[in-house]
Design brief:
The complex is a heterotrimer. Chain A has five helices and seven strands. Chain A is α+β, with helices and mostly antiparallel strands. A five-stranded mixed sheet of chain A has the order 2-1-5-3-4, sandwiched between helices. Mean pLDDT of chain A is 93; it is low at 158-163. Chain B folds into three domains: 5-51, Uridine Diphospho-n-acetylenolpyruvylglucosamine Reductase, domain 2 (2-Layer Sandwich); 61-171, Uridine Diphospho-n-acetylenolpyruvylglucosamine Reductase, domain 3 (2-Layer Sandwich), CATH 3.30.465; 177-294, Enolase-like, domain 1, CATH 3.30.390. Chain B has helices at residues 12-22, 35-40, 76-80, 83-88, 90-97, 102-107, 110-115, 124-129, 228-234, 242-254, 266-294, and strands at 5-7, 26-29, 48-51, 61-63, 67-71, 133-138, 141-146, 151-153, 156-157, 164-171, 177-184, 195-203, 210-218, 225-226. In chain B, the strands form four sheets. A five-stranded antiparallel sheet of chain B has the order 4-5-10-6-7. In chain B, strand 2, helix 2 and strand 3 form a beta-alpha-beta unit. Classes of the chains: A alpha+beta, B alpha+beta, C alpha+beta. Chains in contact: A-B, A-C, B-C.
């Protein structure tokens, strides 16, 4: 089988993997690196569960060939919490605001929100909705997810009681 | 997904050679958002996949004051964030604003959107209305094709198997121009258009007469079309007359031949043309008024 | 954030009940650490894959598996011809691997186990099946006709032999008393659950012949019983079956039954002697997971001039698809709103479930109630208009009240329907907005649902075991299932409240049939009520034990002792106090010491429906009202939801935030059902097995929700709580349809209300 060698930064570490050419980024992250927080919800880029950041931009890892990330940086949900498991403010906000039910969409949601806030630190509720439109959730009706993202204000703190 | 050999050439010439050598066994990959799905579904099973991502010079947006040149590897996200496109070619910004998700727009390219030949492609209606010209590189060198002549049927285009789209060239719009693209969908986001209406209008300024109208329709026929009869009717008429635009809607309906699919009916698509053509026009005109106010 | 309307009696002082406590497993889930079936991997695990039928109805002439068997990495290829027969479905009409013939596109024809998913997929492609197509039938009405192709040739008709009929009162009298009668037809489409995590399971046989199945099932104990059929067929009768829940990536009723794929996985594990995991792709999830069925209903209701309803008559035809699952029993729930939403003295209901060559029908959130309520509540508006009474006022005239016994025999205890209607009236500014037909409109839909369990099995019970360790940490082993709705948290809050400890001191262990006691499953909105009561009574027993034994230690009378904030103290003299942990250690570390362990099995005091389908099958009933304000684009028919409100009588909100989560999530599903969701099929083949063409709401489609929580404090519920899992989607469709009517004067009687239906009517 034809293998491609891929070197990239993964959650802050320089890593290398050799995978078949047709491996998707999702498959490589789950199978080679056991980053099981990257979820496959549809495999077609229609649900956003597999969202990761490549060079700080949100992408559907199910639609991307692993070879694409050679020389790039990749961040997954596992790379979000800081040392000693200190949660990212977005993670804290999702917990506190009840934005998590079954949780399958949650890692992708949080990564999408991360990318959104990096570009627009103070989005309106509508900007949050449009910025995260590529992430489907069947449990929450999205309201509490909007609450959670809205609560994470400029400077990265999680404050206030939300709406 | 079937196995394949992945190539990442560093020049357009190398890419053309790889494509030429492998013929039908090769597929180009740009953003991958369509090809990867087709490969997963077994609808496409190339032995060679040639990535265009490391080819220099085809992922830039350049504006000279006379023409806009968009590299085929420019992502929808880059178009969305381009100030020059939003200011001067706003219908193209409209087209990418609600194309897939942010995640898809970060990957998917304008070249891919065009070359797939999908009847629902969001950028195509606007590019038709902009009279865009597609610049290809092949073994024999460059070739340019007006986008209005590019689509032959669903999934069928004028692109030769060994050609690569390099650039999309759009001439600057005349003074007094305004534009709008309306994508009509069932769901607000993450949806394909049931109908797309793209429109460029040129006002003569003083008399408020429509000097020129260019109307691109997607899903109004088996391929994207220009509503030429409607354009002829509108030219020379008072720009802000609702009666005129209602009649333009009727003409557009008559020159369209939308199909019925499981997504919706031909009759409903016609309803949408009738309802939204005037709205697209007035939204474009509103943009013109805003520009004029800003001076 | 929700507005909470508390009972007038004043709120008792709680220290955890009612609080917005984050879901216990949210911390894990936000870090991507929860393990779903997709994430499960054990040494030597193989991957299973199913070959699905390519015909809706055909004879199987030949299955040639030889090419698949030769593929390196393939460990087993099974068909109906080389495995013992196992049948599923409550009519046992669904062989897990089809022999002789297939009856729908998604039929299981063969299956493989292989070293990787890719090999398994390739192997499935190498299986050659020869079919002889048979005439098929996809319309239930055609399927009932004389000479229609028989789906099951051992039966003499496609109509299922199910006694779905309810007669209450005197219909002739009901009709003759009516001054106004409206008769209409309604239709509701196939829709599906769309769990973000697809279905799957992993089966593993142990050296002693026992079986473990890892599964996101909602019914561990019924699955355990069902999987016993596989054990029997394999000659392993008497061996033990353990069912272990993985994290559940959404369920909504889809995992309320056992399905062929699970038995196939068990068979593959048996024949290979290795653990086998089988997980559906998204496409398989769409076409192979049974769904909410299509229903066609004829309904008529009549009332007097003063608005009092005199009768309600409903006849339904349900497309059952090719096999039985719980879908065929949904009329048992449809009867509930038909007989008991508002005071209607005379009731007639009859439903036919019909086999067709379509996909088949299972449970989905609401269990028939959304379909029935769409018809009833849409028609109530039409009737009210004919009589000339405001629709909200019309509902008030007929409103259900506490203490009522409905014609079907339901004993209504707490009932906040009136308060719900009043709240929605205020929230929507009903009196100012109603009746303009100017493109904007308001509408509402009331609902009733079981809120105190539902006795559809011989047991509606749930068991709990509670233990306290030497540090006063509490472990609750509950038979309940959490599929995201938050039952883990609610149970912890109930136990913490009763034991006087903090929620942080409680862990809830669920999801392993070897470790806890029986529960019938996460269905019928019953978990907070039934598992909550079970946990409450177990905690009460543990508390009794503690106080009994602590009395001598504190030299106080037991009756005088209480536990609060982790301390046992004397109520008459609070200075007499000891840390609970110290009490527990003192009881443990001595000769003849003891530890605190308590258990309770709670089965609600209810009745099975009798032969006439009457009886009080739930201890409590939940009422609610959905309200919507919409704007309709007259030219395109596009419907925009401007405001959406749900007022729900929840008895008591154990956790206000989780209640809101149910209301908001249910509304999203209900709005989707109303406006865009539909499984489309051509000759039985699903045309839209993906999230692009099966449209659930996206973020921008979903409005903010106004949640109004009405607390009526049910006398039987844990701290007064009633179940609310399903009601949040039940009233959506009529609320939206009624609002559309109010905006446009157009009545749409079929779901989903796509814009095409609104402009098409304009042409007529």
């Amino acid at each position: 089988m034809i293998q491609v060698k891929i070197s990239f930064q993964l959650n802050g570490d320089a890593v290398t993997a050799e995978v078949p050419d047709h491996t998707t980024l999702l498959e490589m992250l789950r199978e080679e690196f056991e980053l099981l927080g990257v979820k496959e919800g549809c495999g077609h880029g229609e649900c956003g569960s597999c969202t990761v950041l490549v060079d700080q931009k949100s992408v559907n890892s199910c639609l991307m060939l692993a070879a694409y990330v050679n020389g790039r940086t990749v961040q997954t949900i596992e790379g979000l919490a800081g040392a000693q498991g200190r949660l990212d403010p977005l993670q804290e906000a999702f917990v506190k605001h009840g934005a998590v039910q079954c949780g399958f969409c949650t890692p992708g949601m949080i990564m999408s929100a991360k990318a959104l806030l990096a570009e627009n630190p103070n989005p309106s509720r509508d900007e949050i909705r449009w910025g995260m439109a590529g992430n489907l959730c069947r449990c929450t009706g999205y309201v509490k997810i909007v609450d959670a993202v809205e609560s994470v204000c400029k400077g990265g703190c999680s404050c206030g009681e939300g709406s | 997904m079937k196995g394949f050999t992945y190539h990442e050439p560093n020049s357009i010439g190398d890419a053309v050679n790889l494509l030429n050598d492998n013929g039908a066994r090769a597929s180009l990959i740009a953003g991958g958002t369509d090809l990867v799905i087709k490969m997963k579904q077994g609808k496409s099973e190339p032995e060679h996949v040639i990535s265009l991502q490391s080819i220099p010079g085809i992922n830039e947006i350049k504006y000279s004051g006379e023409e806009l040149r968009i590299g085929s590897m420019v992502t929808h996200r880059a178009i969305e964030q381009s100030k020059i496109i939003r200011d001067k070619f706003s219908l193209l910004a409209d087209a990418v604003d609600n194309l897939g998700s942010v995640q898809v727009r970060n990957l998917a390219t304008i070249g891919g959107n065009i070359c797939n030949g999908a009847p629902s492609a969001d950028t195509v209606g606007p590019l038709m209305a902009l009279d865009a010209v597609l610049l290809f590189e092949g073994p024999e060198g460059e070739r340019s094709i007006p986008i209005t002549e590019f689509f032959h049927g669903p999934g069928k285009t004028a692109q030769a198997a060994n050609e690569i789209l390099k650039e999309i060239v759009i001439h600057d719009l005349p003074p007094g121009s305004c534009s709008r693209y309306i994508k009509y969908t069932r769901r607000k986001a993450m949806d394909l258009p049931l109908l797309g209406i793209a429109l460029v209008l040129v006002s003569d300024g003083a008399e408020d007469v429509c000097k020129e109208a260019r109307i691109g329709l997607t899903l109004a026929a088996p391929t994207p079309i220009r509503a030429t009869k409607t354009e002829e009717y509108v030219a020379g008429k008072p720009l802000r007359s609702s009666a005129m635009w209602d009649e333009a809607g009727n003409i557009a309906v008559n020159e369209s031949s939308p199909r019925t699919s499981f997504r919706t009916t031909s009759a409903y698509r016609k309803k949408i043309i009738q309802a939204l053509l005037p709205r697209a026009a007035f939204e474009a005109i509103r943009r013109l008024s805003e520009q004029q106010r800003k001076g | 954030m929700a507005k909470v309307l508390e009972p007038k009696t004043g709120k008792p002082e709680f220290h955890t009940v009612g609080r917005r406590i984050p879901k216990l497993d949210a911390l894990e889930k936000v870090q991507g650490k929860a393990a779903y079936i997709h994430d499960l991997k054990v040494p030597r695990m193989l991957y299973g894959k199913i070959l699905w039928s390519e015909h809706a109805h055909a004879r199987i002439r030949k299955i040639d598996t030889s090419r698949a068997e030769k593929l390196p990495g393939v460990k087993a290829v099974i068909t109906g011809y080389n495995t013992p027969e196992i049948k599923t479905g409550f009519f046992k009409d669904n062989p897990v691997l089809k022999k002789d013939k297939v009856r729908q596109f998604r039929d299981e024809v063969a299956a493989v186990a292989a070293e990787s998913e890719a090999i398994a997929e390739e192997a499935v492609r190498l299986i050659d099946v020869e079919y002889e197509p048979l005439p098929a039938v996809f319309d239930p009405v055609e399927a009932m006709a004389e000479g229609a192709p028989l789906i099951h040739e051992d039966k003499d008709s496609n109509i299922l032999k199910l006694p779905w009929k309810l007669v209450c009162g005197d219909m002739d009298q009901g009709r003759s008393q009516a001054d106004f009668i409206v008769e209409e037809s309604y239709s509701m489409p196939w829709v599906t659950h769309c769990c973000m995590g697809s279905s799957g399971c992993m089966a593993e046989f142990h050296a002693n012949g026992n079986l473990t199945v890892h599964s996101p099932t909602q019914i561990r104990y019924l699955a355990q019983r069902d999987f016993g059929d596989a054990m029997k067929a394999l000659g392993l009768k008497g061996k033990r079956v353990q069912v272990v829940n993985t994290a559940i990536g959404g369920a909504f009723g889809s995992k309320l039954d056992t399905y062929p794929f699970e038995f196939i996985t068990i068979l593959l594990a048996y024949y290979t002697g290795r653990p086998v995991k089988l997980v559906f792709s998204r496409e398989e999830e769409f076409f192979a997971t049974p769904s909410r069925q299509k229903v066609d209903a004829r309904i008529s209701q009549g009332c007097k001039k003063d608005g009092h309803l005199t009768f309600r008559e409903v006849e339904m035809v349900l497309d059952n698809g090719a096999y039985t699952s719980w879908g065929a029993t949904t009329p048992s729930v449809m009867m509930m709103p038909i007989s008991s939403l508002y005071k209607v003295p005379n009731i007639y209901y009859e439903a036919k479930c019909v086999y067709t060559n379509n996909i088949y029908a299972t449970a989905m959130r609401g269990y028939g109630n959304p379909q029935a309520t769409f018809a009833i509540e849409s028609q109530i508006d039409t009737l009210a208009e004919q009589v000339g009474i405001d629709p909200l006022q019309f509902r008030m005239i007929n409103v259900n009240t506490p203490g009522e016994i409905t014609p079907q025999g339901f004993q209504i205890g707490s009932c906040g329907l009136k308060e719900c209607l009043e709240s929605v009236r205020e929230s929507l500014d009903w009196d100012n907005k109603k009746g303009k037909q100017d493109g904007r409109g308001v509408g509402l839909g009331s609902l009733i649902h079981v809120g105190g369990g539902a006795r559809i099995y011989k047991s509606d019970g749930c068991g709990t075991i509670i233990k306290l360790d030497d540090f006063a940490k509490v472990t609750v082993m509950s038979g309940a299932t959490d599929m995201g709705q938050g039952s883990d948290t609610v149970i912890a809050q109930i136990v913490a409240e009763e034991l006087g400890v903090e929620v942080d001191d409680v862990i809830v262990v669920m999801g392993n049939t070897d470790m806890e006691t029986w529960d019938v499953g996460a269905h019928a909105s019953r978990t907070t009520f039934v598992a909550g009561n079970s946990a409450l009574f177990a905690a009460r027993k543990a508390k009794e034990q503690i106080l009994d034994l602590a009395a001598p230690l504190l030299q106080a009378a037991k009756e005088d002792l209480s536990i609060k904030e982790g301390n046992v103290f004397s109520r008459s003299n609070p200075e007499v106090s000891m840390q609970l942990a110290r009490v527990l250690r003192a009881l443990h570390f001595k000769t003849g010491g003891t530890q605190i362990v308590a258990s309770h099995f709670y089965d609600p005091p209810t009745q099975m429906l009798d032969r006439e389908m009457k009886g009080n099958f739930s201890v409590a009933y939940t009422y609610g009202v959905h309200g919507a304000e919409v704007e309709v684009d007259k030219e395109t028919g596009h419907v925009e939801i401007l405001k959406y409100v749900i007022a729900m009588d929840v008895g008591r909100a154990i956790n206000t935030m989780l209640v809101e989560g149910q209301l908001e999530g249910g509304a999203a599903m209900g709005i989707g059902y109303s406006l865009m969701e539909e499984l489309k099929a051509d000759q039985g083949k699903i045309l839209n097995p993906n999230f692009l063409d099966y449209k659930i709401l996206t973020f921008p489609d979903m409005p903010d929700i106004t949640s109004i929580i009405i607390e009526t404090e049910d006398q039987f519920g844990p701290f007064g709580a009633k179940g609310i899992g399903e009601p949040p989607l039940v009233g959506s469709a009529p609320a939206i349809a009624n609002a559309i009517y109010d905006a446009t004067g157009k009545r749409v009687r079929s779901l989903p209300i796509i814009p095409e239906k609104l402009v098409a009517q304009e042409d007529e």
